[in-house]
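[job 4471] stage=fold_predict status=RUNNING
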Amino acid sequence: MGVETEIKLATTPAKLERLLADPRLSPTDGTEVCEHLVSIYFDTADSRLHAAGVALRIREKARAGGTHREQTLKLPARHQAAIRRQEWNVPCPAAPPAAGGASPPPDPSLWPALPRRALAALLGDAPLQALGATHVTRIRRRIAHAGAIIDIMADSGEIVAQAHPRQPICELELELVEGTMADALSLAASLPLGPDLIWLVAGKGARCRAMAHGEPLRATPAPTLSLSGKMDVATAFRAIGWSCLNHLLANYPLVLGTRPGTNGGCDETDDATATNADAVHQSRVAIRRLRAAFTLFGASVADAPGAALRDGFKVAAAALSPARDAHVLLERVASGGLQAESPDSPALLAHLAAARHAATQAAQAHLASAEFQRLLVDFALWLERGDWRAAATAALGEVLPGLLKRRQRKLRRLARDVDLNHDEQLHTLRIETKKLRYALDFVTSALPTAAARAHARQQERTLGKLQDVLGDLHDIAIAARPPAAESGAGLSPQDHIALQQALAAHTGALSAQTPQLLRRAEKLLARNAKIPHWWAD
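[job 4471] inference complete, writing structure tokens
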């Protein structure tokens, strides 16, 4: 078994050509290998392997020295960066086609016992089936960088899955041979990142599966996290940081949609719009969780580079907010039956859809920018070798009571004094609720006793419900605001007035829900206040 450490950068053919001419990527020994790869990916009909983050393939490599055939199983490296995976490669003989000309699946008996058992546990009695294939021309080079050895692979080709339209592949992969993960990240950080060179973690197998099923890649929730109180703070915060970054890397490319190497789609089909809305939401959640981690650990992980990174993620969150609000507003207006209210309603809905599209484009521009792309890599590099790690040596279990007490006290004090009829105060309360909820999600597994873990999970559920109620109140407040002047661009004064009136009528109906939501919020705040001070035990 090996542990694969690989950074995948989606790009364009023109950019890839320029990168291959870049002296930083010149082969150390002056040679390169050109390979033609045909990879067939497999999964069950209900996508069990994909759900577990597993890739299974048979690959045939053709190069000047002949043809080589191998089967590969890739498993996520538990609680590690998304760029690291467990990998088993074994040679395999050519096999005759299965019934109907289908590609025969990999032979598990060729692998050692560990991957055999892991695959059997995932599959159960479900048979494997071929999803499709990738056809790639790969230029491979080996370079020395900062004392490390890194393989550079420039891939150009396409994904082929049944009768679906083919999808192009254009990527630069940096695979660590010798050295540390930070070495590979530092090479990525030195490259001209930006709209035509973006960090991507969705593998070719995942894209092949989505294409075979005739659907876009889907937004994914935050991964589960398991910590130990015996970890030092540096190890714990690194695990939390990578969990948040993995979450963001899995979702932000779906916001980009039609950018290099992505498979989301930003057209106005219902499926693509839903994918985009979910991806915007999950990207914002990933950034919120990351900022909540900074807040929770405070001075334990504070240094100047970390503060700059935190500010960068705050800017990114602000860039996503208008797109999220526009998605929610249009969904609420459309589901509220606005189309039936007047003959002008379809035109007004179309105008809101155009505003949503414009807000999404602005979010896309930021996420694809060199500023954001560098932020992603710089944060990963800071996690791996930032100076903050030297001071974060206390055991997590020792500092947790104080960290949680500070967050608990702030939320309870705010809840005690909040004016439930004041939108800004409710918004502030919502932010503090999220910070504590995410903190509990991060550290519950590291609490010392079963009773403490049970209390934490109970409080997290209560805070989740409170966050949802406060979120609904926030959405109503956003919807009730008069349309900005730019939202009326392209409309006649009469139509702009009609837009204001239609939105006012709709938000009036929404506002009717406010008293019930406020009562619900009040009850949840009271429930949270009655939870015993378990974190102080």
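[job 4471] summary: Residues 263-269 have pLDDT under 50 and may be disordered.
[job 4471] exit 0
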